[in-house]
Design brief:
8-stranded mixed sheet; 9 helices; about 40% helix; binds NADP nicotinamide-adenine-dinucleotide phosphate
Length: about 300
Amino acid sequence: MAFELPDELKFITNSRLPQKHTAAGLDGKICLITGATSGVGYQGAIYLARAGARIVMIARSAEKAEALSEEIRSISGVRADYRIADFTRLGEVRSAVESVLAAYPKIHILINSAGVHFTHRTLTEAGYETVFCVNHLASFLITRLMLDRMIDSAPSRIIQVNSEGHRFNGLNVNDLNWEKRPYIGLGGYGAAKTAQLLTMWEFNDMLKGTGVTINAMHPGAVRSNIGNNNGAFYRFYLHKILWHFLKEPEIAGDALHYLSASPELAETSGKFFNLTNEEVPAPHAMNRTLGKFVFEISDKMTNYPGGK
Ligand SMILES: NC(=O)c1ccc[n+]([C@@H]2O[C@H](COP(=O)([O-])OP(=O)(O)OC[C@H]3O[C@@H](n4cnc5c(N)ncnc54)[C@H](OP(=O)(O)O)[C@@H]3O)[C@@H](O)[C@H]2O)c1
């Protein structure tokens, strides 16, 4: 009998599985995407624009958003629209979403791809650990604020760009800002990705019967700019050593197109994908009791429904 890995370890071999593709078009669909100015999100925006979707992005750099907007115009003939927000400032995130809501009666696809990895602890102006704020709280707030619009636009799809890094865990609800523990970069990253997964199961329950699906994906281990903020030594390690083991980021864009458009996923919701293959997340990220608690904390930390 051939040896088979237990479900929670299958991610080790899943990255070698063949990927699924779709030729499904997205004409008439509007996609709101974050993190589109680089890496995974950039590829996602390009692939979706090629498939015919109109792209609206929330980016922190107007210069990069402007350049991408023009690039997308050269692909689809329509400029991508954008709003500016730094995801370390949740008030800016809220304003950007409100502006999108005011301008777009329908949004059919929401892709939360913006993310960071820090090897050292940093805090936002509000005192939140930065990776938790950018990777989890901002995507949580955007999803929360967009929920009714996604329902009004059904059939619609939400995709959380998560990571196999959730397996590093690091989530301690009594120490979200790492005041009581020495900061570990992979732990901080794992905490944010775990929180995003835990809250996704809650969103999935809220969306049952609405025609809106929500899924999470690991976008592959691909060449991108993530981690470039961690100094020259880390950049050397990333670009001279790790780079050789990473794949081309196009596979992530292709996978985002598949998850956004493929007819066979029309009813699929509340799943975790390793690129395009469904996978079992780590047990700690499926703790529904903890998830309900993290959802409540995330509401409080993002001041939802709140004001500015
Ligand atoms: N690359 C991988 O192998 C890999 C593996 C697993 C998961 N992921 C996930 O994939 C997602 C995208 O990462 P990536 O690899 O594409 O990294 P990337 O190339 O560094 O892209 C990150 C994107 O997030 C944006 N961003 C970062 N901080 C922000 C902030 N404070 N406010 C607003 N936007 C901000 C960046 O904007 P700028 O262009 O202005 O910097 C960029 O558009 C992340 O969620 C990451 O955790 C990546």
